[in-house]
Amino acid sequence: xxVLTRPPSASGTPGQRVTISCSGSSSNIGSETVNWYxxxxxxxxxxxxYNNNQRPSGVPxxxxxxxxxxxxxxxxxxxxxxxxxxxxxxTWDDTLHGLLFGGGTKLTVx
Amino acid sequence: xxxxxxxxxxxxxxxxxxxxxxxxxxxxxxxxxxNWVRHPPGKGLEWVSGISSTTTSSDTYYVESVKGRFTISxxxxxxxxxxxxxxxxxxxxxxxxxxxxxxxxPWYALDYWGQGTLVTxxx
Lengths: 110, 123
Known about the structure:
The structure holds 2 protein chains of 2 kinds. By secondary structure, chain A is mainly beta. Chain A has strands at 9-12, 18-23, 35-39, 46-49, 63-68, 71-76, 85-93, 98-101, 105-109.
């Protein structure tokens, strides 16, 4: 069971906006930056958001991240069928001295 | 173009050993942290180990469940990352990904990933 708490699933229809939350503690999210990854099983995971709210080159503006206190969120606007994937929050933990991944949120586009 | 190519996975009996390799190209290998992340079947991604860049400290970090069994290392002359896995257990079964950090320490985001290599621990 991950130290980072997240909803195991989320869903939306094409064009909708969905958000995925990630909750941690003062030793991880509260004191470190949060990154988000998109993963289709069987393929290489992809960095979507780094440093809480920065998009790497090539990631659409539809994807955005935010952080407040010990929690972070990923928002996807204008949902598309190709967005159906598993989404992971991740951050460093200062107490465990290791990288933490949330358990993953499976996004379904209805 | 950044490329990461893992190799060395396979079927191994419980208690056995495997050495994973990750050949990197397209960036200055010495200046970035490198990590191993695994994806067990039916579960989520799990970070396994990270190593700081050789130009800083080459400090190593491990998830608790592999401490004392796995060793991460690099060979800068070959731009290659390794993961020596000993005393393997069934719960180590997973696809293992090599991932490059955006900075010199493992706490930076992982901006490039390999395609993964499958490790199966079973008798």
